[in-house]
C-alpha cells in the first residue's frame, strides 16, 4: 500500500505541478474530515501519514488539564499519567482511533478536500510564477471574447487582454497567436487573474530587446518609451559605447531591425530619438521631424518649456491631433507650449507695448499733482502736501496706516483717498491703451 499511495501522490504531483508534501497534507486533512463524519464525535480529530506503513492514521487530540470541563477535548492529568508518567498539565495526548473504513459519503468528503487543496496549491503556484514575470512578454492564443476583453491561453493558465490595453488598429480572431506583456497579476477567489497588454510601452521595450542585440546586452540603453498604441511611439536611446550609434543600431541595415518591431505592432510608427541630458537638445530631438528655432525653459520647477518653430513647421511640430507634441511631452516629462515665430514676435511686441504703457503711466503719475484727483477736497490736499505727498505717484505708494498718521485724516478718509488715486491710474491706463491701439491702427492703414 505504501508504494501504491506514494506512486499515486508522485504522479499527481507531476501532473499538477504541486509539491508532494502539499498532496500528503491534503490527504491528511481529507482523512480527518472523513473521520469526523464517520465517528460523529465532537473530539478534535487529526490525521497523519505514516510513510513506513503507507497508511494514514487518525487520532483524537486531548489537552491535559487538572479538572475536565470538556470531555471531548480534554483529559485529566491523573488519567493521562496512565499512558505516560512524563505528562504535565498543558500537554496534548494523541489517542489512536480504529482503522477507518470509508463509506460513500466519507469518501466523497475526502475527495472534495483533496481536490480543493490541490486546486488551491495550483492557483498559488500560478500566482507566484506569473507575479514574478510582470513586464515580461508571453505568447498566447485567442480563446474567446468576454465583452470587449480577449481571453488568451498562455499555457498553464489564461490571461485577460482588456479592451483598454488593446491597440485600436488591431483585430483578432479565434486561434490567432498574440504576443503581449504582463502588467498585473490579481489574486482572486476563483484563482489568479493575469492581465496583459498590447498597448503598454514595456511591450515595445521587450520587443527592442528581442530584435536588437545592442539593447539586449545593454550597450544601447532605452531611456524612455511612450506610445499611443497602434498609431505612434517615441523611444529615447543612448549608448554606453562611443563607437556605437544608438539610433543606427536600433534602425538596423535598411531598417531591418526596427521593421521587425513595426510588423509585430501591426504598422505602428516608431520614432527613435537620441537621448540627451541637455533638455534643449533633448527637446529638439523629441519633436523630430519638425525643425525647431528655439527652446526656452519657462519654469524649471514645474517643468514647462516654450518651443518656437518657423510658421511652416508649426503643424508638423504639433502633429496630427496634437500627437507629436503630446508624445514628446510624455517622453521628456515636461509640458511643452509650441508657438510659431510670428506668434512669438506678436507676443513680444505686445509685451513691449505693455511696458511702454506702464512707463507712460509712471511718468504721468510722477508729473501729476494732487489737484488732478477729482473728488479730493482742498483741505485734505493741503494736509497731504504738508505731509510730503506732492504727486499722485507718491500717494499711490502710501498705505492706510501712512495716511491715518497725518492729522485730521481718519481711516474712512484714507480709504477714500487711496480709491481716488487707484481710479485715476485706471483711467490713465485705459487712455494710454486707447492711444496705443489708435497708433497701431493708423500704422496698418
Main attributes?
16 helices; 4 domains; GMP Synthetase, Chain A, domain 3; N Utilization Substance Protein A, Chain:P, domain 4; disordered C terminus; alpha/beta; 445 residues; OB fold (Dihydrolipoamide Acetyltransferase, E2P); five-stranded mixed beta barrel; four-stranded mixed sheet
* Overall body shape: elongated
Radius of gyration: 41 Å
Q: Low-confidence parts lasting 5 or more residues at pLDDT below 50?
A: 440-445
Domain count, please report it.
4
Q: What is the name of the CATH topology of the largest domain? A: N Utilization Substance Protein A, Chain:P, domain 4
Helical coverage, percent range: 40-55%
Major β-sheet strand ordering? 5-6-7-9-8
- Supply the CATH class of the largest domain: Alpha Beta
The share of residues in extended strands comes to 15-25%
The CATH architecture assignment of the largest domain turns out to be: 2-Layer Sandwich
State the oligomer. single chain
